[in-house]
What we know:
By secondary structure, this protein is an alpha+beta fold. The protein has 12 helices and 11 strands. The chain folds into 3 domains: 6-55 and 293-304, Helicase, Ruva Protein, domain 3, CATH 1.10.8; 59-193 and 277-284, Elongation factor Ts, dimerisation domain (Tetrahydropterin Synthase, Chain A, 2-Layer Sandwich); 201-274, no CATH class.
Amino acid sequence: MTAITASMVKDLRDKTGAGMMDCKQALNETAGDMEAAVDWLRKKGLSKAAKKSGRVAAEGLIGIAVGAGRAAMVEVNSETDFVARNEQFQGLVKMIAQVALDVGDDVAKILEARVGSITVSQALSDAIATIGENMTLRRAARLSVSSGAVGTYAHSSVADGLGKIGVLVALESTGAKDELAALGRLLAMHIAATSPLAVDPSGLSADVVRREKDILADKFRQQGKAENLIERIVESGLKTFYKEVCLLDQAYIHDNSKSVAQALKEAEGKVGAPVKVTSFVRYALGEGIEKQESDFAAEVKAASGQKK
């Protein structure tokens, strides 16, 4: 029986993109015949996809789709940044964003939705088998307006509507649609850069405000401020906090001499009507996912049964 070496496993992995254990099994099943092992892996496409589901997918792309009065955004993760440059993967992300535009932001419903003869879930599995990496639809968002526009922006863009940071911002207004769209893009760019927590202070959670108050109070106590003055000083400190985390209170990145609220007021002249920001969503690729560092040499040795 042919001995399966670490280099054979690595060569098959490089050729097919399949997982280490899948490659070892394929070589064992085909007595070390490389071409036969490639065929064995191709025939096991969906099985291969299922086995990859445990691997961390923290790279990938944010995809945005735009429709009349609405826009949708999805995060589709892969294991490596290299896949984000793959045209098949880019097409997959665009397709999923388009589905979200029609279906909404429920990930389960998006995965169940049909595109032609297959579901989105099947399309993902097929892409996993073909490209050779675990992929997941992590989250989705959709914003709409009754009258106005939804501004969009994709940062670190690799193609139209695809990037590493994505933003949707809903503007309610009866003004000119083209001017609203231009304004929406500028606001979306601002949100991408500053990552606000809410449109205004009323949108902040009670926990966030309480935590900031506690931090400020402790800070002023340590500075020796009188207890009967702390509450008033804390309220003043909160105004600075709001300027940092609330969209309308932030300094506008396109002209930091004014706040976003002031910039919006000035823009109403071009738009021809009042403009109200009702909501926004900002996605940064992989945020909150704990990425795993792997020792590739050790992985190869483990898969081939060798000792370190």
